[in-house]
Design a protein that fits this description.
Layout: E1 2-8, H1 16-30, E2 34-43, H2 53-65, H3 67-76, E3 92-99, E4 109-112, H4 115-128, E5 131-136, H5 146-153, E6 158-161, H6 164-173, E7 178-179, E8 200-205, H7 214-227, E9 233-237, E10 249-253, H8 257-265, E11 267-272, H9 281-288, E12 292-296, H10 299-305, E13 310-312, H11 317-329, H12 331-345, H13 350-369, E14 386-392, H14 399-407, E15 414-420, H15 427-436, E16 441-445, H16 452-462, E17 467-470, E18 475-477, H17 481-491, E19 495-505, E20 511-514, H18 525-533, E21 546-548, H19 549-555, H20 569-579, E22 581-593, H21 607-622, H22 628-639, H23 649-659
Parallel strand pairs: 1-2, 1-4, 2-3, 4-5, 5-6, 6-7, 8-9, 8-11, 9-10, 11-12, 12-13, 14-15, 14-17, 15-16, 19-22
Antiparallel strand pairs: 17-21, 18-22, 19-20, 19-21
Helix pairs in contact: 1-13, 7-11, 18-20, 18-22, 20-21, 21-22
């Protein structure tokens, strides 16, 4: 297979995350895969922090001043390879000053390796039909704002995580992950002699990276020297000797791999002072060298060292020093930890880790491109293709009609996922009774009321299908609803949502046909965005359609605003239309009952509420794949959006359809 691995800029210094990626690239190349590693100084979609306009101007000026450096990087170092790691000669390397979506070479699989590389990877995979992998080595909250970081986990990529604590983070975010633990080359770090025979007491890593806490290391070593005279300690790193390091501590700059292995084998204890790591390599290398480990209790070390390392809370230098002194004063305990750690780390062999990475990568590609087949050759899927999510609350008298209309669908492969939002009437009993006679129904029972936004978001995250639609508890759909809309999506691979016209039933029993025609035949994303901005009445018809599940992850679901849940579906529709086309089936396949007691009627309306919705909508545009100037045009239109007088509506539609076709 053709595999592209996207990294940030080429690093002149050793870095653990890069080392893992390079190791896997070598493994894939040795197994016949055509591997290209791209180092990009800047990337499309790498904006992961919200900055005020002044900061953006300062950053732009700084980038202009660095234009010469970027040109030099692109031209003179376009094919440079890492100097501190030996890449297989079969691995191609490309270094670019800026990586756009179109610059990602044609591949079967594209691997994002950091938060800044995730969006360009997702967009490139969508463009070329490739399988996208998000190789998550840390929760990079020092690199990105939390909401933007979390949104990258929800991109249409397969999330590989390297540690169990990152898998737990995936559960917290409601996204699926595949655990692919790191490993080390055990042969590079053979066990040393018994700890009692080792000349050095402590070995540790010093780094300029803030979360590795060199300041805490210095404080801990100073306390160890005070409490235990004559301590022999060695610190290694890639930079100059840290200021403040006690005079009794030897510093080794840029140790060779052979010298690094010797440092581990010559020390009784390895000391880790980091505040956070993804899967920290040095303690694992020390464990392979039969060196006892003292570490802060962080997920990146506990994932492989829990129970076989002495620990202290992050940031507590006094406790770390105490753990080290206790082990140095008790050689038997120190040897016990060293032996236990050696036995544990043997389960994390680097060759097995690389093979696991390859197996999961190939499996992800096969899952997307090669359907499984039954015994007689017929295509079968491991999960239903379409999921209907039904957010229900106090709807005992009418939700059964919604469920019956879903059960009557001609589409055979349908999952029905119902979320009862802690109803105070008999809704749950009705739903349970329905589920008992239908095997394709799952019921989620809420212990407390979440509101329709949180309820819906959670249901969509739980959905198994690659296509999803929201079947609201007061809607009914025609028997061919799913079949017709799925066919419309299959006929237009560039479409992200298919919807039909809708029949609105008023409380007095009168019926009204509603249709959202503004996007019919509109191809350009900006034109679609302007059309949604100019359609103040019927845009909501589209939310009753079938959409591709990956778009929900890309957008991040329905978001509340300063006014609460009011109008939360409009920003979602806006972002969705910027990701792909909408296709309309011009028949009323959905019936919506406008009930006087519906939740939406309690929200009210007014300029303040509309302004709150517009603010969220502008955020969605900012996070969309539009070009910067398109974002500017659409943002300006949204900020001034008002209900147009009837006389001006034809002019607005003409602008959308003809000026920006």
């Amino acid at each position: 297979m053709r595999v592209v691995m996207v990294l940030p800029a080429l690093s002149d210094l050793a870095a653990g995350g890069y080392k893992v990626v390079y190791t896997y690239a070598n493994h894939l190349a040795s197994h016949g895969h055509r591997v290209t590693v791209i180092h990009a100084a800047r990337l499309w979609g790498d904006g992961v922090r919200r900055r005020p306009w002044r900061a953006k101007v300062v950053r732009a000026v700084r980038e202009l001043r660095r234009a010469g450096d970027h040109f030099d990087y692109h031209v003179r170092h376009g094919r440079s390879r890492p100097t501190w790691f030996v890449l297989d000669e079969r691995v191609q390397v490309r270094n670019v000053a800026y990586l756009s979506v179109c610059m990602v070479p044609k591949a079967d699989v594209v691997v994002a390796t950091a938060v800044t590389t995730a969006r360009v990877t997702a967009a490139a995979c969508r463009r070329m039909g490739a399988t996208g992998i998000y190789f998550i080595q840390h929760y990079e909250d020092w690199m990105a704002d939390k909401d933007l970081l979390d949104s990258t986990w929800r991109l249409p990529l397969t999330n590989f995580v390297i540690a169990d604590w990152l898998a737990d983070k995936g559960v917290e975010l409601g996204v699926a992950t595949i655990l692919v633990p790191n490993g080390i080359d055990l042969a590079d770090f053979p066990p040393g002699p018994p700890v009692i025979e080792r000349p050095n007491d402590v070995v540790a890593l010093a780094s300029h990276v803030p979360n590795k806490r060199t300041d805490l290391l210095i404080a801990a070593l100073s306390m160890i020297a005070e409490r235990r005279g004559g301590v022999a300690a060695v610190v290694f790193g890639v930079g100059a000797r840290p200021e403040g390091l006690p005079d009794c501590v030897e510093y080794v700059r840029l140790p060779t791999p052979t010298r690094l292995s010797e440092l581990y084998r010559e020390a009784k204890v390895y000391l880790c002072t980091s505040d956070g790591e993804g899967w920290h390599l040095p303690p694992a290398e020390a464990m392979s060298s039969a060196t006892a480990v003292v570490s802060t209790e962080i997920g990146g070390v506990m994932t492989y060292a829990r129970g076989v390392a002495a620990t202290a809370p992050p940031g507590d230098g006094d406790a770390l020093a105490s753990r080290v002194v206790e082990l140095l004063d008790d050689p038997d305990r120190c040897q016990q930890l060293a032996s236990s750690g050696l036995e544990r780390i043997r389960n994390y062999d680097g060759a097995r880790a690389a093979q696991r990475f390859e197996d999961e990568l190939v499996a992800a590609w096969r899952h997307q491109h090669i359907p499984s087949r039954g015994a007689r050759g017929e295509e079968q899927t491991a999960r239903p293709r379409v999921t209907a999510v039904v957010p229900a609350y106090n709807s005992a008298t009418f939700v059964r009609a919604t469920l019956d209309s879903l059960a009557a669908q001609t589409w055979p492969d349908l999952e029905i996922l119902v979320g009862d939002d802690a109803s105070t009437d008999d809704t749950l009993a009705v739903v349970r009774e329905f589920a008992s006679s239908h095997g394709n129904v799952r019921v989620v029972e809420r212990a407390a009321n979440l509101g329709w936004l949180a309820n819906t978001n959670d249901l969509v995250r739980r959905a198994s299908g690659e296509l999803v639609f929201m079947a609201f508890h007061d809607d009914t759909v025609a028997p061919t609803y799913v079949e017709r809309l799925v066919r419309a999506l299959d006929d237009n691979p560039g479409a992200v949502l298919a919807f039909s016209d809708l029949e609105l039933v008023h409380p007095d029993g009168s019926r009204e046909l509603r249709a959202f025609r503004d996007l019919d035949g509109v191809r350009r994303p900006l034109s679609r965005g302007l059309a949604v901005a100019h359609s103040p009445t019927n845009w909501w018809v589209a939310i009753h359609g079938v959409f591709r599940a990956w778009t929900w992850r890309e957008v991040g679901g329905l978001r509340p605003n300063a006014a609460g849940e009011y109008g939360a579906d409009w920003p979602w529709i806006m972002h969705l239309c910027l990701l792909g086309e909408f296709t309309r089936v011009p028949e009323p396949l959905c019936v919506k009952a406008a009930r006087p007691d519906s939740v939406s009627r309690t929200w009210g309306s007014g300029p303040e509420l509309q302004a709150a919705v517009r603010a969220v909508c502008v955020d969605e545009v900012r996070n969309s794949p539009l070009a910067w100037w398109e974002k500017l045009v659409l943002t300006a239109e949204i900020r001034r959006r008002v209900a147009l007088p009837a006389a001006l509506k034809p002019f607005a539609k003409k602008l959308v359809r003809h000026v920006l076709p």
